[in-house]
Amino acid sequence: MNALAPAGVSAAAFLDRYAARAGTNPSRDRAADMLRRTGLPRSGVEAWKYTSLRALGDVPFATAPATPDDAAVRAVLAEAGQVVGLDPDMRRAVFVNGRFDPSLSSLPDGVSVGRFQASDADADGDVASALNAILAEDGLVLRVAPGADAGRLLLLSIGVAEGTPISFHPRHRIELGQGAALSVLDLSVGRGAYLNNPVFDIAVGDGARLGHAKMQAEAPAAQHLAVVHAEIGAGGLYDSFTLTLGAALARHEVHVRLAAPGAVVHVNGAQLLDDRQHADLTSVITHAAPDCNSRQTVKNVLSGHARGVFQGKILVERVAQKTDGYQMNQALLLSDAAEIDAKPELEIYADDVRCSHGATVGALDPDQLFYLRSRGVAEHEARAMLVKAFLHDAVDLIGDEVLRATLDRAVESWWNRKDA
Amino acid sequence: MPAITETRDAVESLGQSTYKWGFETDIEMDLAPKGLNEDTIRLISRRKEEPEWLLDWRLKAFQAWQAMTEPGWAKVRHPPIDFQDAHYYAAPKKKAGPKSLEEVDPELLRTYEKLGIPLHEQAMLAGVEVPEGEEARPPVAVDAVFDSVSVVTTFRETLAKAGVIFCPISEAVRDHPDLVRRYLGSVVPVSDNFYAALNSAVFTDGSFVYVPRGVRCPMELSTYFRINARNTGQFERTLIVVEDGASVSYLEGCTAPMRDENQLHAAVVELVAMDDASIKYSTVQNWYPGDENGRGGIYNFVTKRGACRGARSKISWTQVETGSAITWKYPSCILQGDGAVGEFYSVAVTNNHQQADTGTKMIHLGRNTRSTIIAKTISAGQSDSTYRGLVRMMPKASGARNFTQCDSLLIGDRCGAHTVPYIESRNMTAKVEHEATTSKISEDQLFYCRQRGLSEEDAVGLIVNGFCKDVLKELPMEFAVEAQKLLQISLEGSVG
């Protein structure tokens, strides 16, 4: 409505890197046009009200060198394995600085894997996707045949930047045929100053089930800008969870379309932030068919000067009668300087629906602390118990038990490290 | 069940017509030429015999306004407004300035009589008009604003005895310049937003209330706004200042004739509450909503804000929004004083092609401040209704508390109901709770009522009244009855 959107931050550094391939793909050119026109958003644009990408405009991110430092990669990998307790037998696809590394990967049987095709890139109108579209090189293309159960797959992103800040923009595509099943553990770790900008295009076929447990544990100086576009078929399930632990600036953006009757989506998550971390979870769940069901529980635990952002929208289109939508955001502020900004939003055009949302913000309940203290539990232990219990409620919603246990361990070790 | 009988009677008495306030008063008007520029503002200021400082203030606002663009974030659609195509001053031609009711143009008095606004102090006091079997109502002091000017303010002497100032703001500028100058624009600055800046530049009249220290205002105060003239906008300005330990309850009502064109209403209301003061501000907004095809109606773009400056001060907004083609309105509270309390109770009903984007802002600055938000939204026909609210806990708001509840009811499958809350907390000991639901009238409830012999329309009315009860019970009694009827009428034709 308002044509005079606030001028954004210049995306010139990124567009310069794109100049060499300009004109090779119309959808990439469209994305470049959009970035040139609007720039990177700073807070003030409604969709980016609480998160500014000003920091990105200041850094001249370079393309990652062709061969990464092998020792650094192995060190990061070992550290990640220690913290999360990765199952060494789990099939895995490993990307180093955004490029597929066959030597570290072992792909499951019955799954066809391809490399990213430039023709796949499409901006879909959001800035993070547009940025990905112009600079995407590599990515996983994973198709699970109808009826097949592909088990579990670890999708591991390792970022290693020595000195010069680098950025990488992997573009993944996951398609599940009718009745197929797959669980993905999506883990990103790293070292140094880099920008990881992954985009997922996900299609869940009729009756198919996709579990997507994401754990973002990027390096403290890193930035993480992820987007998921998912479309769910009749009776399909997309069970997603995003655990945000790392990066100085992070945004995870989810766009889900429940496209046929009976589709179900879970967009759950937890943020554990400290110091001056800023993390944003933004989701738009569109009910585009009748009888669909969406569930969202997001919890934030914020210490230090951390800032947590939650923007969740449930859009119920005219046709989507008998929609059942539920959204809950709970934030726990553990320090005086922490900040939470929440915007749970309902946009509803159908009348026969049941939609509700709730949001709470507060500190640890003094009564609960007192109860534990009066039973001889030490203060810091009592706090740990309450915080972990608060988070457990959210992590417990992950359907796949192995992924659930992995994320539970990650929460546990994050807290212990912080507590030490 | 007298409530039902009453609502049903109200609807029956209206027959098919939906907006009974849509008549036009034929009265000689004094109009400023169309258009908006510095000359218009100088003309308004001259007509109102204003001091220099106020003209400067207006011109500053006008400059700010020229540099601003219309806000685009609200969930409303309308064709661009031509701000040059309206009269910014319209006043009934007056003879010598009425001193008492007898001197007021009888045509005007008839208008208010038709609207059911009591302007006759004597009759009211004697209780002559009270039908048998009903208790006499306590008197209400009324400031009646007709287009750009205040026509009459009742009970002024009674109020003056208590030390309460209640008069048109133009008069307050003359008689109490220090008070006006000190508080005008102190809550809503001239450059606050597009429509507030416009209002500051061209506001013509409105009410001024001052309640001195320790005084409990002896009666309810009320302003009644009426747009009558064609091609005019109404820009009234209300300023209420309540000193330490004082309190006041203020009611606001409004109507306009039925016209095919859209008219702009951009008001500003400023409230100031000092230590232990309390202000209760109730609105029944019933501007002409346009016809069933969305032609005509008032654009109601209003800035209302209260500052709880003092410790333990309290501001309570209650609104029933049934009229207007478009409503854009966010009565807010700035809770500065420690232990200050802000409340917002709202019912917004949209039908046909109406659009409403309304809600509140609660800005918690002081320690142990508390706020409560109860918003009920009802959408029918092809209308769109949005609750948009902000709760912000600033770093010093230790122990602050907010509770928000938003419920939406959809009637029919061509309307929309939206909830857009913003929650921002920067204090760990502050506690915020928000909950919202959206649903339709349950078949079970409807069946239960129908089974007991209620028509579908009555049943819906009953259920809607129940849905809104938490808000309606906050209204003063006279308004509550009126509001119940209005709800029923607004939803007429939305079922079956």
TrEMBL record, chain A:
Residues of the signal peptide: none
The record, for InterPro entries, names:
Fe-S_cluster_assembly_SufBD, SUF_FeS_clus_asmbl_SufBD_core, SUF_FeS_clus_asmbl_SufBD_sf, SUF_FeS_clus_asmbl_SufD
Q: Which Gene Ontology BP annotations are present?
A: iron-sulfur cluster assembly
Sorted alphabetically, which Pfam families does this protein's record hold? SUFBD_core
User: SUF system FeS cluster assembly SufBD core domain: from which residue to which, for each copy?
Assistant: 167-390
Q: What is this protein called?
A: Fe-S cluster assembly protein SufD
Name of the gene encoding the protein in the UniProt record: sufD
Automatic annotation (TrEMBL), chain B:
InterPro entries recorded: Fe-S_cluster_assembly_SufBD (IPR055346), SUF_FeS_clus_asmbl_SufB (IPR010231), SUF_FeS_clus_asmbl_SufBD_core (IPR000825), SUF_FeS_clus_asmbl_SufBD_sf (IPR037284), SufBD_N (IPR045595)
Query: What biological process terms from GO does the record include?
Result: iron-sulfur cluster assembly
**Coiled-coil intervals, chain numbering:** none
Domain (SUF system FeS cluster assembly SufBD core) spans 225-467
Tell me the Pfam families matching this sequence: SUFBD_core (PF01458), SufBD_N (PF19295)
Domain of life per record: Bacteria
Q: Which residues form the SUF system FeS cluster assembly SufBD N-terminal domain?
A: 160-217
- PANTHER family named among the record's database cross-references: FES CLUSTER ASSEMBLY PROTEIN SUF, UPF0051 PROTEIN ABCI8, CHLOROPLASTIC-RELATED
Which NCBIfam families would you find in this protein's record?
Answer: PRK11814.1, sufB
**Which family does the entry's similarity section mention?**
Belongs to the iron-sulfur cluster assembly SufBD family.
The protein's name is Fe-S cluster assembly protein SufB
This chain's source organism reads: Gluconacetobacter johannae
Higher taxonomy:
Bacteria, Pseudomonadati, Pseudomonadota, Alphaproteobacteria, Acetobacterales
**Name of the gene:** sufB
